[in-house]
Amino acid sequence: MKCLLVGGNGQVGHELRRSLAPLGELLVTTRDGDLGNGLRGEALDLSRTGDIAPLVERVAPDIVVNAAAYTAVDRAEQERELAFRVNAEAPSALAAACANAGIPLVHYSTDYVFNGRGTRPYREDDPTDPLGVYGQSKRAGEEAIQSAGGDHLILRTAWVYAAHGHNFMRTMLKLAADRDRLRVVDDQVGSPTPAAWIADATARLLSRAAMPRGIVHLTTAGATSWHGFAEAIFEEGVRRGAIARRPHVTPIPTADYPTPAARPAYSVLDTALLASHGIEPPEWRAALPDTLEQAMR
Ligand SMILES: NC(=O)C1=CN([C@@H]2O[C@H](COP(=O)(O)OP(=O)(O)OC[C@H]3O[C@@H](n4cnc5c(N)ncnc54)[C@H](OP(=O)(O)O)[C@@H]3O)[C@@H](O)[C@H]2O)C=CC1
Ligand SMILES: Cc1cn([C@H]2C[C@H](O)[C@@H](COP(=O)(O)OP(=O)(O)O[C@H]3O[C@@H](C)C(=O)[C@@H](O)[C@H]3O)O2)c(=O)[nH]c1=O
Ligand SMILES: [Mg+2]
């Protein structure tokens, strides 16, 4: 199988380079083609949507996995056009190119497509209602892929963290090094999900004789608040020597931590469909130590 991985330098993309490699030939794009460590891949700037079809035609893969996205939730409120170009128009062009070539597109989406006013885990077919520009642009990407008419798998994940890149775990570890006290919201609830596990689960789904189609929710099991996640990061961080001491973390309501983008209060995703495809997610808390240890190396 020849796989084209779009966005190999992000949290999930970086882990997919590892997990997809054993499935066959893997070609990787980044914005400028640089893969780090002196390695070169293909250059693809997704804001140049006209470059997408020619690249897919030239590479002629058997499958495309798109891990690139505009993920700056707050900045998106000011950069609506760019967010939509990268998260909706680029996936639309990718889906058209894949449909044209008769190959499947695997894509990632987010819990932020929901408004968070639900009271039970969201199922794949629950109505979406994104609160901010990032979520709206991601939802538009889902719809564009669905309407392109080709074979596709959209994996909705949430609260992604990794040893590398920009994420809440690394932010908390950095803050712990210089602050005694932090304030973290405790009324936004979700499922922190390691990029490494997302990448492993994706590889497992792709190696199935019959790869699942449509939208599938892909997060860890259980849920916590950002405050609960911070406390877990500090507890595990001290235990494993990633930080010297545990800062005091005050739980606060969202109203006391104003941000440009509104975020869903409750964004737990139901993973029963994933389980029906043979993947049982680990509890979010049990999954944390692996990534924390990886971040220390
Ligand atoms: N992060 C999270 O908490 C969550 C993420 N998701 C989704 O999961 C997927 C993976 O996210 P994650 O790995 O965290 O994202 P990251 O922000 O870690 O990585 C995104 C990648 O996309 C690349 N990218 C952005 N704009 C462009 C562009 N114009 N051209 C080429 N490349 C571009 C970035 O490149 P560069 O480094 O050069 O900017 C970066 O490598 C995305 O679809 C995201 O929406 C879903 C739920 C939660
Ligand atoms: C740094 C910090 C954040 N917060 C709050 C702000 C916010 O409500 C919450 C999370 O902050 P972040 O900005 O790290 O998380 P955010 O960028 O909103 O994370 C989201 O990213 C996108 C890409 C997704 O798809 C989502 O699933 C989700 O992971 O924590 C505090 O309360 N105290 C703090 O010290
Ligand atoms: Mg953020």
TrEMBL record:
GO molecular function terms noted in the UniProt entry: dTDP-4-dehydrorhamnose reductase activity
Enzyme class: oxidoreductase
Co-factor requirement: Mg(2+)
Any one Gene Ontology cellular component term annotated for this protein: cytosol
Transmembrane feature ranges: none
Known EC number: 1.1.1.133
Organism, as annotated: Marilutibacter penaei
GO process annotations (BP): dTDP-rhamnose biosynthetic process; O antigen biosynthetic process
The keyword NADP appears for this protein: yes
Listed pathway(s): Carbohydrate biosynthesis; dTDP-L-rhamnose biosynthesis
Protein name, entry field: dTDP-4-dehydrorhamnose reductase
Nucleotide-binding as UniProt keyword: no
Cofactor detail note: Binds 1 Mg(2+) ion per monomer.
InterPro entries in the cross-refs: dTDP_dehydrorham_reduct (IPR005913), NAD(P)-bd_dom_sf (IPR036291), RmlD-like-bd (IPR029903)
